[in-house]
Amino acid sequence: MPVPAEPSAALPIAAPPVVPEAKPLFSYRKYWAHRFGVAPFFPMSRAEMDTLGWDSCDIILVTGDAYIDHPSFGMALIARLLESQGFRVGMIAQPDWRDASAFKELGKPNLFFGVTSGNMDSMVNRYTSDRRLRHNDSYTPDGEGGKRPDRAVIVYAQRCREAFPDAPVVLGGIEASLRRIAHYDYWSDKVRRSIIVDAKADLLLYGNAERALVEVAHRIGKGGIKQDFSDVRGVAFIRNGTPEGWLEASADDIDSPDEGIRRKHMRDMPTVIRMPAYEQVAADKELYARGSRVLHKESNPGNALPLIQRHGDKEVWLTAPPIPLTTEEMDGVYDLPYARAPHPAYEGQKIPAWEMIRHSVTIMRGCFGGCSFCSITEHEGRIIQSRSEKSILKEIETIRDKTEGFTGVISDIGGPTANMYRIACKDKETEALCRKPSCVYPDICKNLNTSHDPLIQLYRKVRAVPGVKKVNVASGVRYDLAVESPEYVKELVEHHVGGYLKIAPEHTEDGPLSKMMKPGIGTYDAFKKLFDAAAKKAGKKYFLIPYFIAAHPGTTDEDMMNLALWLKTNGYRADQVQTYLPSPMALSTAMYHTGFNPLKPVRRGASEPIETVRGLRQRRLHKAFLRYHDAENWPLLREALKSMGRADLIGPGKHQLVPAWQPAGTGVQGEGKRIGHKGRQRPGEAKKFLTKGVIPRRPSGKS
Asked: What is the pLDDT of residue 261?
């Protein structure tokens, strides 16, 4: 991670904090129920429990996704991990939430209910960035929509309570993780309380929760839910106040010049940072931006402190972030005995998400890119956690031998990004001190080891597995890292690209890019040069497919106009485009909601303002600029260009953006007339304008 700024000579920096040793994930004494052995699939009915010889479940997991026993699906990974610790795990997948009946199917859990919305936030899953209802769901059999409720975690937790009022409820997954404090909710356009308060849950596990889950499960197994979990990293819970013996630090001090000295003293006694209260951030946008900055500053496991935030007469307490898994622990998690198939109850139905990932392999977790709009960092952390070559090759052999329909093609080998495998800070002490949000913005940190050699060697070994014909890289390539390794680009182009490669510059203009924490378009140009040269040398005709975001905070109409001109100049025409969606807890969401920049210090009256795109008409305009070639958008673009004083961009020239005429049946004009040309339409010209090569749709979940 990046080295912190040099401190003032008068203020010596504190010694590196000591990161506690984490108890190895698979070192716990197994729970007594381990004698029941491994379940082929976790039971979803009483009849399946009877077949396994179970009279009850120790832990029952409730999820908004269909149950697929594969490590790419969070509930399956969690269930297999709990099973490896000796617990009997039941699964309630996509239950009817309208009453508590479905939540009684497996009986009362001996230890607790574990509740998640699934692999996606339920509101992101259900609604578009224009707040329109989606009619399909990739995590549901046959892609059917409407199988999970809005705010699924809250609803499921309520139904668990109705079914068994005295059964503990533990929240987890991305919806809980990204809503662990008071947060702006785009769909209701207001600040909502921490989800643990609204769900009335006992505990919340955030981030990569394997460590916390195993510790919590064993503790509840021994002593129940009524105990102190403040020494368990990566959890949130409700308490009445700050316990005796703890020092409270103010959130206002994290940007003070003497922060290093303060933190040195803090380590002499337990310290918690008091965040602005829910009621304060709900009423004061500048305080909300301040709270967002504090949360993201306190994200490095090496130096982060616990956080506390008042909600009415209760306190939501967040312990420090979890210690990342070691390579051996990652291997252990991914080597568990997954069935690698949907539950037999779905026989004859296709689950789109399963069809997409069934022949793919996850090789790492985390992302140190720090893109302000992306939820990967908030959920998985900035420290890369990589699997060993041996574990990855073993999984590929398993896919080859046991996964139905395998034709020799690995559809993806990657993770949140394609090319951060085994990349890390050169110095552990520097990493432990670092408080910057990104290792690669505004420039690649000098302390970051950017070598792609381990990944190149992995690619070569994967290709050599007997029965493997092709290994695709479908995860997004971080091109500002890739340019550091021309050998990686060569390897990628020669062996792992199928026609085109998707990357995400997101914009061309410095204004929005600085708010996204993305590199300038010059870095894209440098990567394209390497990519094109490698393709030419390999004798292949490959293309880069860049993705862009419309209406991100900090983006002006002029920025979008310039992006559209860049697209036209470079011959790109987007098929489907992404309009910015403010996801819970992201830094750019704080920008969108507050109009302030939490990437810089937030101080009363001195915070940096940010122009935000909130109105539906302006959001549509920004989206229209990305689809400048679509005749449906021409009337809106002509009107905007005139109001911007850029009517010179209306016309038939190559340097112009949209024509002055309108094809029949399109746009608000719809008369099929060349405006100002006596009603004549140029035969075939609309078709010619609309049928050049397109940029396909961005895969969901990619950053």
From this structure: 58
The sign of the CA dihedral 577, 373, 419, 399 is negative
User: What DSSP string runs through 266-280?
Assistant: HTTS-EEEEPPPHHH
What lies within 8 Å, CB to CB, of 658 at 6+ separation is 628, 633, 634, 637, 638, 641, 649, 650
Q: How many CA atoms lie within 13 A of 116 on its CB side?
A: 28
The DSSP result for 430-481, as a single string, is HHHH---S-SSSSS--TTEE---HHHHHHHHHHHTSTT--EE---SPP-HHH
Residue 78 located in a structural domain: yes
- Asked if residue 264 belongs to a domain, the reply is no
Closest to 412 in 3D by CA, of 497, 503, 528, 531: 497
Domain extent for 593: 327-338+349-602
For 451, the token pair is 């070598």
CB 232 within 8 A of CB 215: yes
Beta bridge pairs of residue 568: none
d(CA 160, CA 355): 31
In a domain, 320, yes or no: no
Residue 492: alpha-carbon gap to chain centroid: 24
H-only helix segments in 98-151: 122-126
Rounded to an integer, the average pLDDT of 654-671 is 82
Q: Is the pLDDT of residue 12 over 80?
A: no
Cα–Cα distance measured from residue 90 to residue 41, given in angstroms and rounded to the nearest whole number:
9
- Running DSSP on this structure, what letter comes out for residue 596? B
- Chain centroid to CA 579: how far? 16
CB 261 within 8 A of CB 268: no
Burial (CB count <10 Å: 0-12, 13-18, 19+), residue 6: exposed
* Whether residue 664 has pLDDT greater than 70: yes
- Average the pLDDT over 519-525 and give the result: 97
Assess whether 383 and 491 both reside in one domain. yes
Number of domains in the chain: 2
Look-up of token digits 């179970």 = 54
DSSP secondary structure string, 549-592?
EES-TT--HHHHHHHHHHHHHTT-EESS-EE----TT-HHHHHH
Tokens 């994290």: give the residue. Answer: 254
Token pair 């009337």 is found at 635
- Residue 580, φ and ψ in degrees, nearest 5: -55, 130
Do 226 and 86 fall into the same domain? yes
Residue with tokens 């302030």: 596
CA distance 481 to 479: 5
What is the pLDDT at residue 577?
84
Rounded to two decimals, the pTM is 0.92
